[in-house]
């Protein structure tokens, strides 16, 4: 996460520049989706008489929560007693607990290829199917 934050630009000179970065960095792999969803992550401000676009949320400020966001998430998912589908970009990203449960038929895995972190945005048609 620290490397992801370090690799992100601090600001953009225009909204279009930000959208291009989002797409070129493969943050969102579908340009149409980047145009729709990425602007909501930025805010416009003025510095030295120039308009710029910066991040609404400073992700570094959320670092103390990172581990807690994911800790126990697999158990919570598996503990829900309804039919489940897990959409993922790569089956290899599942942890041991999910892999075992999937092999036991506790949920269905659907791998959507050629997508990144934002699976539902990169291929919304496959997500809907």
Radius of gyration: 18 Å
Task: Give start-end ranges of low-pLDDT stretches.
Answer: none
- Count of separate structural domains: 2
Average of pLDDT: 93
- The coarse silhouette is elongated
Number of strands: 5
The rounded distance between the terminal residues' Cα atoms is 31 Å
Order of helices and strands: HEHHEEHHEHEHH
Order of adjacent strands in the largest pleated sheet: 1-3-2
Question: Sheet with the most strands?
Answer: 3 strands, antiparallel
What percent strand? Answer: 15-25%
Q: Classify the helix fraction into a percent range.
A: 40-55%
Query: What is the helix tally?
Result: 8
Structural class: alpha+beta
What does this entry look like structurally?
With 129 residues, the protein is an alpha+beta fold. It folds into two domains: 2-61, no CATH class; 72-128, no CATH class. Helix content is 40%, strand content 17%. The strands form two sheets. The chain has a three-stranded antiparallel sheet with strand order 1-3-2. It has a two-stranded parallel ribbon with strand order 4-5.
What are the defining features of this structure?
alpha+beta
Q: Could you give a quick summary of the protein structure above?
A:
This protein is an alpha+beta fold.
Topology:
Blueprint: H1 2-7, E1 11-12, H2 15-24, H3 31-37, E2 42-47, E3 50-55, H4 66-70, H5 73-79, E4 85-88, H6 96-103, E5 108-111, H7 119-122, H8 124-128
Parallel strand pairs: 4-5
Antiparallel strand pairs: 1-3, 2-3
